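[Meeting: bench + compute handoff]

Bench side (C.D.) handed over the final construct sequence. Compute side (W.E.) agreed to return the predicted structure before the next meeting so the bench team could plan truncations. Sequence as handed over:
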Amino acid sequence: MNKAGGNQSLALVYVTQKAPDPHYLMFATATVFTNQLAGLTTLGYTDLTPIAVLVVDHSVITVSADSPIKSMRDMVERLKTDPEALAFGMVARGGPNHLALSQAMRSAGVDPKKLKTVVFKTNGESMTAVMGGHIHAVVSSVSAALPQAQAGNTRMLAVAAAKRMSGAQSNIPTMREQGIDATGISNWRAILATKGVSPAQAAFWEEAMARMAASEEWARAIAATTFTRNFLRGRDFAKYLDEEFAAARAVMADLGLVK
C-alpha cells in the first residue's frame, strides 16, 4: 500500500494507528526526523519500532558544467566574502539535503542562516534552473543529480559522505577531501514496524531484512543505483537513529528551524 502525501506524514499517521499490528511496516527516510523537528507533526521515529536501515542516499552539491566554481574551496571563498553571493536550489527547506549544505558551510566558516536558498517543487526543476543560470548551485541526493551530470550538463562538486562512493560515482570528491569536515545528515532508507510489536515479531522482520540484504539479488539491485549499502538492524539501528536525530536537531537548531 502506498500512502503518499505530507512528505511521509500521512504514512506515519497511518502506520501508528495500526499499532501494535506486526503486519504493517513503514519504508521511511530521514524526513521522519525533520518533519517532527520542524513542528509539522508530533509523531516521530520513537512512535515506531526500528527494524533495519538498508541504504543511504548521500547529498551532493552540483553546479552547471560551465560554472566558474570548480571546487568547494572556490565556493566557500565566494561565500565568506558575501554569504548571499550564491543561490542554492533545493526541494525542501530544512530537509536532509539542506541540512547537509548547512552543516558543510558551518564547518567551513560560513553562516548557513545567511545563505540564499530557493525551494523548487522537484529536483528536475532545480537542475533546469542551475543549467539555465537562474541559480548557482543545487543541493540534492546523488540519485537526483546523476542524470544531468552524466549528460555533461552539470558537475558534482562534492558529496557529503565519510568516504568516496564506489562505481560510477567514485570520481566525486568528498567534502572532507576538500577541507570541509562534514559528512552530511544521512538520507537513509529504512524499515520500521508499529510500536508495541513483540520481540519475536520484531526479530522476524529483522531476520527477513537481513536475508534480503545478504542476497546476491539485492547486491545487484543496489549496484545499479547511487545508494550506499549501510545495513543495521535492531538495537544497532535504534542507536543509529538516536545519533542521526541528534545530528539533525543540532543543524536545524542552528538554522532556527526547530519548533
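W.E. noted at the follow-up: Residues 10 and 42 are 12 Å apart (CA to CA). C.D. will use this when planning the next construct.
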